[in-house]
């Protein structure tokens, strides 16, 4: 659980955050026109986390469970491909202190 989720070989990591408890906000840099923004989050512990992405105003929840790492990676990423996604921005996570999480932000 300590390591952030990995991305596919065709995707570029632009930021990552190791195991964290509670909330946090992280910046990511500008991308190329036409690139999607990829947010991969892994969590463990009982509770739900909320992830929000600015400036594109996209968000998603992730239900976390005890004893098993839940992840948005694997067969499906949270991939954002909307107008403005190539701009720099922030990803914010709201999480209870009972939940451990890690994140990778990428472009692809």
Topology:
Blueprint (H helix, E strand, L loop, with lengths): L11 E10 L2 E5 L8 E8 L2 E8 L3 E7 L5 E2 L6 E3 L8 E6 L5 E8 L1
Antiparallel strand pairs: 1-9, 2-8, 3-6, 3-7, 3-9, 4-5, 4-8
Can you tell me about this structure?
It is a single chain. With 108 residues, the chain is mostly beta strands. Strands 1, 3, 6, 7 and 9 form a 5-stranded antiparallel β-sheet that branches. Strands 2-8-4-5 form a 4-stranded antiparallel β-sheet, with no helix packed on it. It is built from no helices and 9 strands.
Number of helices: 0
Distance between the termini: 24 Å
Question: Judging from the principal axes of the Cα atoms, what is the shape?
Answer: globular
Mean pLDDT, nearest integer? Answer: 84
The count of β-strands is 9
- For the CA atoms, what is the radius of gyration? 13 Å
Can you tell me the residue ranges where pLDDT is under 50 for at least 5 consecutive residues? Answer: none
Strand content: over 45%
Category from helices, strands and their pairing = mainly beta
The helical percent reads under 10%
Biggest sheet details: 5 strands, antiparallel
Strand/helix succession: EEEEEEEEE
